Amino acid sequence: MHLSPAHHAHPRTPGDEQFALAAELLSLLGDRTRLALLHALTGGEADVTTLTEACGAARPAVSQHLARLRLAGLVNTRKEGRRVIYSLGDGHLRRLVDEALSVADHRLSDRPVHD
What we know:
Layout lengths: L15 H14 L2 H10 L4 E2 H8 L3 H13 L3 E6 L2 E6 L2 H19 L6
Antiparallel strand pairs: 1-3, 2-3
């Protein structure tokens, strides 16, 4: 696997607290449904119904994953009547999701083709 140099490397050596928070963040992203939800939110705000359709999971599971992401501060919510509208917490998260999916694309495209 070929790794390209980081364009925006962390400016200083991270401490224990940064490593712990980054590991927590990456563990939240390590779930396929949560990653799919975050990816869906890179396109803009959405409600639970829209997100359920986008990620293909059962509505109760989507609601639980969204609650976990909200508690972790990765998604924001606002009310629109009775509906709860979700959005990404910040642009850094959008880039992280995009980068994770780009790495996956590269790994898939680097696989040898078998007949």
